[in-house]
Hints:
Strand content: under 5%
Shape: elongated
Largest sheet: none
Helix content: over 70%
Structural class: mainly alpha
Amino acid sequence: MNGVAFLLRALHHGEKHLTRHLTAVAERHRTEHEVHHVATDLAGWSREQVRCLSETAGHYGLDLDDSADTRLPALVSTFRQKASEAVSHRSEPGLLLLRDLRELHLGATENSLHWEMLAQAAQATRDDRLLGLASACHPATLRQMRWTNTMIKNLSPQILTGP
């Protein structure tokens, strides 16, 4: 497998993973309205990037299946919502939120590095299709990173030093 195929597969896997994780975090922290709504929106961005990757990969002879539904089944979603409501009354939900934001940030950072490598490979080979894909998708990943970083900066002092 050449390097470009490796990157397309890594990005496809990484964006699918980030979609699932963002969706899970949105459900787990449903009572934190900003987290719930923004994470849900960011999951949609990653879901769209999975679609774009699958479509582009076909031009390179790769079959990246994007048919797997990355949304949570209704039963799991209901369970997470009830668990979120129960956890919100305990003292540890802030620490759980910080852990979730850290993991989201690391996932988005890994994807960002892969997008950057793909863009560099596209420039080196003068592949306009890959460069267009990276140019279209990487900015959303950078915004995901900025959001998680900002949330961690804003919430850490209160959560880590509070009673």
